[in-house]
Amino acid sequence: MPQPNARQRFAANLKEQRLAKGLSQEDLADLCGLHRTYVGSVERGERNISIDNMERFAQALEMPLEKLIRERKA
Questions:
Q1: What is the distance of C-alpha 41 from the center of its chain?
Q2: pLDDT truncated to tens, each residue of the chain (74 aa)?
Q3: Comparing C-alpha atoms, which of 3, 2, 14 is closest to residue 47?
Q4: How much is the pTM?
Q5: Are 39 and 5 in contact (CB under 8 A)?
């Protein structure tokens, strides 16, 4: 099975962390100053997200950006 690429890892980790904090996509979007449909498309791995927006997500979730990019443990 092929390893997920960085965009897929970021998408999965973002969704996992958002849910762990009890936030809706709309809540996270508000914290980041982004549109909720953008959050959804990022979580589905449909967007080639900029590093600036990756940083906005990490700050909103109060975690280092590296944690959102790391490979997930099986």
A1: 10
A2: 677 889 999 999 999 999 999 999 999 999 999 999 999 999 999 999 999 999 999 999 999 999 999 887 65
A3: 14
A4: 0.91
A5: no
How does 15-50 read in b/e, with b if 16+ C-beta sit within 10 Å?
bebbeeeebebeebbebbebeeebbbebbebebebe
Contact 31, 60 (CB under 8 A): yes
Measured over all CA atoms, what is the biggest interatomic distance in the chain, rounded to whole angstroms? 36
CA 5: distance to chain centroid? 14
For residues 38 and 34, give the distance between their C-alpha atoms in angstroms, rounded to a whole number. Answer: 7
SS (H, E, C) 18-46: HHHCCCCHHHHHHHHCCCHHHHHHHHCCC
The residue with tokens 């944690």 is: 67
Distance CA(20)–CA(43), nearest Å, equals 14
